[in-house]
Design goal:
This protein is mainly beta and 889 residues long. It contains 12 helices and 62 strands. A hairpin with a 5-residue loop joins β23 and β24. It is elongated.
Amino acid sequence: MPLSIGDNLGPYEILAPIGKGGMGEVYRAHDSRLNRDVAIKVSNAQFTERFTREARSIAALNHTNICHLYDVGPNHLVMEYVAGQDLHGPLDFDDALPIIQQLIDGIEAAHERNIVHRDLKPANIKITPEGVVKILDFGLAKAMELPPSNESNPENSPTLTIGATTAGTILGTAAYMAPEQAKGKAADRRSDIWSFGVILYEMLTGKRLFQGESAVEILGVVLNKDPDISAAPPRVHKLLRWCLEKDRKNRLQAIGDARRLLQEPTSEATALFPSKWKLSALAWSVAALLAVVAASTSWIAWRATRLVDRPLMRFSADLGPEAVEGPRIAAAISPDGTRLAFPARGPAGNQQLATRLLDQVNPTLLAGTENAVDPFFSPDSQWIGFFMDGKMKKISVQGGAVVTLCDAPGAAGASWGEEGWIVLSPTRSSGLSRVPEVGGTPQAISNPGEKGEVVHRWPQILPGGQAVLFTGHTVAADFDNASIEVLSLKTGQWKVVQRGGYFGRYLPTSNGAGHLVYIHQGTLFAVGFDLDRLEVRGTPARLLENVAGNDVVGAGQYDVARNGTLVYLSGKSSAIILTVAWMESTGKIHPLLPSPGFYFAPRFSPDGKRLALAVGAPGAGDIQVYDWQHDTITRLTFTQTNLYPVWTPDGKHIAFQSQSGGANSLFWIRADGAGEPQPLLESKGTLIPSSFSPDGQRLAFAESGVDTSFDLWTLPLDVSDPEHPKAGKPELFLRTPFDERGPAFSPDGRWIAYTSGQSGRFEVYVRPFRGGAPSGSGKWQISTAGGAHPIWSRNGRELFYETLDNRIMVSTYTAKADSFGADKPLPWSNTQIMELFGTGIWNLDLSPDGKRFAVIARPEATAEQKGSVHVTVLLNFFDELRRRVPTSK
């Protein structure tokens, strides 16, 4: 039923009819949600499940020169509205060349995703007022095509219905249809190449290449006559002949090759050679002469295209007054080197992603990316991937709907490959996984524990898609001492290629040779890298000083485009100094420790008079106790890496985690500094102590497993001799396929609150605990929009937690027998605290009186820093790299 102006189709208000075709009506409409105009194609019939499935796959295709499909309804398609005129000729070759090149780019982008148009024609090509080519309906004709059961059987060939309302459409389609399609055979990318050739001829001559009075007559010409291309400019004759071979096996096999044929010089003599001309003796002489000329021309072309030693050019780019200096990824640059993506403040003051072209000043905020971090680009530079709310997502660089790809509760980097896969580190303590670019369930491809490591982070898919570069480490901190490693996707094996650094990136700096760059102590190092053997060549050299990096999580504040443009944030580290502060429910913050430092995991003693902390760079951190009333600090540990202090209920001892090499251990030590640490438990996985039971006889902890990420355990303790406690056998509390952490005993010891990623993002849950094991099957979700770090109040009535955007929430509860009831969580304070850069380390604790928190405070930008986030851009960086660090294949 036709729609009228003012009608609504879901959120779309019909503005005007655009046209009518065999499929149905086309309307211009307004999307009230995103405040943009769209084109809606309403079908005369309901779409099949197969069509809907294929259309949604096509919606993942996004390119500047392809009209984007936004949504699919039961009988309608919602597409990008393109203002402009249809493609028509004749055009002068120089005027047509930009259009031809954009057509090639759009077709190539779709073919790389195995999407075939099948109905390319001038009516499906728009030229916007800005001169941008937009190919309409890409892949939809193919999606609607019924698969032939036997394409050699003429009974199964497609039926062309010629009626009064559709004759023009069918005639037009027939004129651009490839011979194999006319025979009823399945179309492939070479069918699009034929149609491109027909369009190219018509664009340059203004004439139809195949003409007739009916569709049948036109198809007969297509099948039985060689096209006459003499009216076209001679410089495109060779390209047209390759496109218009009737046997697709002899046709141009990839549309990208059309670029080379367009650039090849063509004389009148070579242009007029028929494709199947048999050479006479004179012709052979002419051909020989032309071969010499061609050889000379090729040498000149080689000289013109060989690597040129271009000077390094440097400039500073101001990201705008609303830009935010991301602690892990300050800015990502698109592979084509034209666009930046970075965090910025939105209208409501919250962080979201922004994008801007390098040659423009004003950025564009991307709606729907609130709280997004760590942007990365698709290979065609048309999509931006990012992490938000425990998920990996993507959005078009032009904006639009955000697409959720997979669960990623605590990710540490991702890389989008040419083959349609994204490799990511989905959690802070996991190996690498991969997921299709259209989304799905991540598939694990590495297990750090197999070689005594605990993390694999910040991957980069290497050219060819058969290997992945990444940062690996035996501890989850101190990444200056990490390793750059490479994983073979064929064998599943990985090896270290460079020790002492992080955030490695391979750069294809020249034909057949490349470089590995990485960060160590604020300096960008470079070394030759053999892509075939997956190994370094030569000795690393200092390349660029003062490149910011985050050695707490292993993130580098730089990115490099394929054209050799480098963008980076200056500074030694983006994780330098932290402040421990008191925080009131009003949001007021004032210092707790007298001076800033490298502080982690604050924990109050039971009487609230002392604060245990992990102090110092995480790779060499130690447990210290601060007596805030007397302003004194006692250092408890002096060796290895020590984190996660947990007080015993009597306040006389502290349990903590110690890391050494590939081993993780739990220790027990006197809180006054006397005595030596006593071992409790050792594991090859990561151990994170969290909470003592009220009687002090059990320690709840999380342990990373081989197949299940972190599981929850309790460790029985015999503390009859408190200076030499005896640990029993650990008892499993909770094991699922998901990531569980932070088990916290309730004040009466009958419940355990914890964090789980089972919903796809971290949420806080409560389960009963009886007699040393989980009791019953009860489970209650406390947080409603993401949460972590559950903390019970001492009064037995409140449960606090931290939101994903680092605010504190509180839920009152009642617990009777085996029943637990929690009220809707409410904000305790709207002031954000420091997230500690994705480490998962505690950043807050509740004072025993329940009135205030000790927090790692979020640093306030200085007046000079506010609104002045600058990144440095280096042009011709590959040339500089070849000069400074020579390498050879």
